[in-house]
Amino acid sequence: MSTLAWTAELVLNQPELDHTHEEFVELLNRYGDMLDRGEDALPAFKALLAHTEAHFAMEERWMAATGFEPENCHSSQHAMVLNVMREVVRYAEDLGDREPLGIVRTELSQWFPGHAEMMDAALVYTMEQRGFDPKTGVCRDPIPAPAAAGEPVSACGSSSCGH
After folding, report:
1. How many Cα atoms sit within 13 Å of 53 on the Cβ side?
2. b/e per residue 114-153 (b: at least 16 CB within 10 A)
3. What is the pTM of this model?
4. What are the sequence ranges of the domains in the chain?
5. What is the sign of the dihedral through the CA atoms of 144, 148, 149 and 155?
6. I need a surface site. Which of 25, 97, 121, 130 has the fewest CB within 10 A?
7. Is the dihedral of CA 33, 39, 42, 44 positive or negative?
8. Is the dihedral of CA 142, 146, 151, 156 positive or negative?
């Protein structure tokens, strides 16, 4: 059983990010498969965590290069997800409690599509607008107009965000 299917709705037409997202889904499914088989899923979960740390760090670099404010909704969500994932590892290793491994599987599979479709899509849009090349790190418009006017990008992609 697949934990999360890689579908066309998850494709953002940004090759580096789409590849990273597809890897995330594969790792999430590998970890889910281990849970389903009753195997020790902690090593697979730790691999997913390591991938997610690198994945989010890449997005954070892109946000910084394209004028997102340092404290933004997107970055805050990354920090929250990583904190939860690290706590799952801590519970498993330090407390011998494996129950959170099963809980976080469902939570991640429900969280990821919305995050990709809203926040990551907003990041890709901003990258396109600024002419940012993730391979070189060069931004055609290094001083975004909103940031120059004192209004950096909040990175949320939602009109309901308070940032």
Report:
1. 10
2. ebbebbbbbbbebbeebebebeeeebeeeebeebeeeebb
3. 0.87
4. 14-148
5. positive
6. 97
7. negative
8. negative
- Residue 39 CA to residue 14 CA, distance in Å, equals 35
CATH number for the region 14-148 comes to 1.20.120
CB 114 within 8 A of CB 105: no
Q: pLDDT by residue for the chain (163 residues), tens digit each?
A: 689 999 999 999 999 999 999 999 999 999 999 999 999 999 999 999 999 999 999 999 999 999 888 889 999 999 999 999 999 999 999 999 999 999 999 999 999 999 999 999 999 999 999 999 999 988 887 654 555 554 555 545 444 444 4
State the DSSP code for 132.
E
Distance CA(116)–CA(23), nearest Å, equals 13
d(CA 136, CA 36): 41
Phi, psi (5° rounding) for residue 49? -60, -45
Q: Which residues contact 18 (CB under 8 A, 6 or more apart)?
A: 10, 11, 12
Measure the CA angle with vertex 106, ends 44 and 15; round to 5°.
65
Residues facing 138 on adjacent strands: 133
